[in-house]
Design a protein that fits this description.
- This protein is an alpha+beta fold.
- It contains eight helices and 15 strands.
- The strands form four sheets. Strands 3, 4, 9, 10, 11, 12 and 13 form a seven-stranded mixed β-sheet that branches. A four-stranded mixed β-sheet has the order 1-2-5-6.
Length: 358
Amino acid sequence: MTIGILPRGAGNAITDVAGVRIGHAIVIAGDRIRTGVTAIVPHAGNLMQEKVPGAIHVENGFGKLIGFTQVEELGEIETPILLTNTLAAPRVADALIEWTLAQPGNEKVRSVNPVVAETNDGYLNDIRAANVGRDEVFAALAAAREGPVEEGCVGAGTGTIAFGWKGGIGTASRVIPAGVGGGAMDCTVGVLVQTNYGGVLTIAGAPVGRELGRYYLKEQLESAPSSPPADHADGSIVIVVATDAPLDARNLKRLAARSMFGMARTGSSGSNGSGDYAIAFSTRNRLRTGESIRTMEVLANDAVSPLFQAVIEATEEAIYNSLFLATTMIGRDGHRADALPIDRVIEILNRYGVLRAP
């Protein structure tokens, strides 16, 4: 299945942006704990000493994104980005501060702005239990690697649900060849998502959710209860965007905002209870102490449109990957989240011409 027009990166993952590393810690215990942590590390150096330009876009602010205001004000990210569950976010932030202070070179640091985002996995996970903390954060950061990214029911996606099916972590990437849109060099845009939201699932234009009979407002429209009972709309998504294009914070914020177009293509309802956030950073220019962004190479406004196309396509595909690679999970109180029925989805996509050769 081809999503969009731009070529994928070599690994079709956020780690196609050189230097970006991903690590997961999975927390599964007994029949009630289904959660975890995912770490996105922009580069292998000391982020506190070599910050990256960054920005955060809030589409619907029903969430608890720690670190937002300083990123908004300064346009810099100085820690790894961690994803987890809603009630674990403060503990994860505290552990991230401890980890950052312990890095060599940070002995004199007296302020840390941890960036931690979350979605609520409380349907499958006993979210009120203190099941994510220091050990899990340190494990996810220690596990962070370049190369292939594990997807599906891993890390912060262990207990999530999307469109009434099992959601999780997904990733994808796009490459903008040199000369396209006026850029003088190849650029890569990589996306990683934590999917836990809903609506009417649409895949490459095909109404998959409607055909499968599981979608937002179905029960109200048909006056029939669903199994499992849910409206398949509320929830959240966190989208993390990495690029090696030389963007400043202003254009990174624009790039982050465009990722929501990719989310919309998948059939999101953007409900009142959906916390929808995008965090974007560039690896091209590291912001060393005392150095001004004005002295650095920055891509002009006229050259960023192809990057917008890339982030839309990569976000859309990353969301599909989070669903395709997830597996059925039973958790708290016997609650069950079924994996997307791949055979039926393929049949639907074939029927709507999505998988046919052009």
